[in-house]
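Why this split exists: single-chain examples teach little about how molecules sit against one another. For that reason, every record in the complexes split bundles all components of an assembly together and asks for one structure covering all of them. Below is a record exactly as it appears in the raw files.
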Amino acid sequence: MRYDADGITTRAGRAGRWLAVTLLTAAVALSGAGTARADDSGETEATEAGTAFRTATVIDQGRRATASASTGDYLYWVFPAGAGQRVSAEAEVTLPEADTRTGPVTWRLDVYDGLRRHQSCASGRQSATAQEADAALTLECAPRAVRSWADPWSDTPLPGAYYLRLSVAELPERDLGLPVSVSVEVTAEDAGGSVAVGGDLAGPLLPVGAAGTVSAEAADIVREEERDGGRDDGVYLAAVPEPEDGWNGGWWNDRWLWTAGGGLLGALAALGGYRLTRPGRGA
Amino acid sequence: MTRALGGLLVALVAGGLAPHAVAESRGEPEPPRVNLVLDVSGSMNERDMGGGESRIAAAQRAFNEVIDAVPEETHLGIRTLGATYPGEDLEVGCRDSEQLYPVESIDRTEAKTAVATLRPTGWTPIGYALRGANEDLGDGPGSRRVVLITDGEDSCGEPDPCLVAHELAASGTDLVVDTLGLTRDDAVREQLSCIAEATGGTYTAVQDADQLAEKVEQLVRRADLPVENPTAVDGAEECRDAPWLGVGVYEDREEFGEHRAYRVPVQAGQELRVAASVTADRQVNRDYGVLLRALDEDGRELTRGTGAGTGRTDVLSTGLRWPVEEPDDDADDSGDSGDAGEDRRTVCLVLSHSFSAPDSVVRTPGLPVELAVDVVSAADESPDAAAFGLARGWAPVLFLAGVGLVAGLLGGVLKRVVTALRGTA
């Protein structure tokens, strides 16, 4: 994504507003097409989970993924989230048969962003303990709403990939390795205009998957990167599908209505005020 | 508006390209390689796998199913331990591990015949067998997995299987060992989970023959993930000696209390994004943290990523992003970057962790570290707080209405004054 947008935009001047709308429409249309393509490529329900960040299984929003695993495994999935979305991850764990277990077990669901930064759950029961007799347990984690821009030093949720990690937090050592089956689902809802912040991220936070280049000289690295100018092709981990409304969430939010409403009200009030004080009234 | 438009263009390009980019495969696919290591020690005669089936019979049945199901591209090998020497001599018994079937494109009939000949016989030299299994897999890129199936702990003691696992994991060959225990014995579980933990594998306590077959099949499938192995790098203690990194994933080892530094060249107008994780591949104390600092050429901290946690974990991670702004005129670029361009900056990444471990725990090799570096074009400087600078809520709406009212009133008054002045003129 190397190109000079500023040169174009400064020249665009006031026409930029209209151009922007046109481009937005195009962007929405294009990104929609992108998603469709990803869906077409033989999307079946995921039945495996990854065991590390790098091997996380890609899942899409609104699709249930299942996996069979051993108690004590750390299970990873990765899903997309766009700006303006409030995502919520739900996990169901079917525990091993009660007669093979020896004590209570605590499971935990964590969400990390595309840069592997831990995202706290704003709501939901993130960790739960199952007693010996319980057959299953349910966990939920809904991190804060995704914003389209944030200061670089903050860990505000940003558009991109998110990791989901399901693991056992506490267990009797004797129960390690017993078979469990789990299923997870990520749903997203519109977070509304209150989280519609200004600015867009240059690109979504996607996990890099390609092996890197090491050198004793900086110049080698720079040369290498200049050579494969389109280096963002293929460096990312896996086909994380773009959300329906694009990574940056589109341009529409209810701020347009509020602002237009305010403008309309202002115009009416101006008209009313003028009629009150204009000459000819009461004359 | 221009900023918003710039962002839109980015959105447009990202939206158009991303699905293509990620769908593309890179380079020649290396065949995934899996080595099944089966314990054929005397105790495998035990008939406790459900329905009076012996452990060895259950294992043989599972192997046959796996051999039938293995994908064409996967290279599958089989190694045994304790298959030949029935005697009492520790020296000989603890070297009793051999390759039953080499790691290559599998001939299903041949492999099944070889498996059928196995009779439970000897000792359980797990550590020795793991080294052999690693050699069987050969080196070169592509995923390398060992699936170890055993019903007992190592009966030789030397070499310690868990230490062997650490040694193999640190040898830079990206070996993953998954372990399956056929008994629910405390010593077996500890040993097998230690081996799995040290190599990033999983430990399973097998309940019955069907589960055994299913699990082995699942583990063989896991070898076939289209995931590239990270590049090995050796971070330095100081920034000035640190290796240079480009875009990609890297792996390193960091001992307790150690710092590791890496350098990344970033052009002005680009954003550096780094994710780092430290794997707890052995027993560690309850509370831990990780710190990733980005320093400039003069050692000034630009930004940092921190992570902390408590309790059972496999990995602790953090990340940071740092956009490099266009240089000021007085920017001092005298550091390591030399004369190759004014607008290139050096960002030094220093990674440290605060894991600690009980005294009994092995110290070297250090904990595995993974670093993912990305450089993208940066967004412009801070935009308005609200989308397009738009308002929301009653306060701005009432404010706009109030301003309108005042303007209308003033307009009316002004008109009156003007009319009055005209009247008198």
